[in-house]
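Board notes (copied after class):
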Amino acid sequence: MTDRSPRLAGKKALITGGAGGIGSAIAAAFLKEGADVLITDLDDDAAIATAERLSDLGRIQGIGHDVTSEADWRTAVETAESTLGGLSVLVNNAGIWVSGTVEDTDYATWKHGLSVNLDSVYLGTRIAMPLLRANQPASIINLSSIAGLIAGPNIAAYNTAKAGVWMLTKSTALAAARAGDSIRCNSVHPFFIDTGLLEDVFSKDGTRKAIGESERDRLARQTPMRRLGTTDDVAYAAIYLASDESGFMTGAELKIDGGISAM
């Protein structure tokens, strides 16, 4: 309990959506705790720039990656093996906001939302599993949402995808445990986190809107703690789940929601 060594020393982590607010915060936190990191993002220039910005913190690389592409996933995992020397932590963080009731959501939007938010987690987990198994103990951290546990009338596709991530997490955890693998799988469920994604929450007809303090206050009032979450709130949770400190935790959900789910 008095060990002061970095909590993630020796860990090798792949983080999708790594150029975004939550992804880059997790990457920075992992580096500070001694992990080697590969961040991937649909925007390859942003992934590379983010890696360069964080390079003073530790060993990190950034590459382009379409998480809906099986071929891209194979390339990402192969890159982790060649540049990090293996993979012991997979953070399925990439995702998009999809609004609309079930009637308002056309089929193309529905399929795209589930492809990015749910199918990507299946692909990443399935393709990365052999490398994770070769680098046990390993941890899979799936970014779901409080919307995977609490429904809303106007986010049908988002609710469905994030609930699917929650259940896929549990199934993965049980399968790994039954196989005798030391590969844990847990999900994280944030509520409103203060990132650029909040602009999508207030978007109209696909047009993003810059939000100010009034919009932030409106969202914050929905939580018992009366504030928005920060990217650090999520990153600290990810450190715990990636570390051996959570060695007896699998198939669980960690809520980072300001108390909304307790109501």
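Comment from the instructor: The radius of gyration is 18 Å. The helical segments are 21-32, 44-54, 70-84, 107-133, 156-178, 198-201, 213-220, 231-242.
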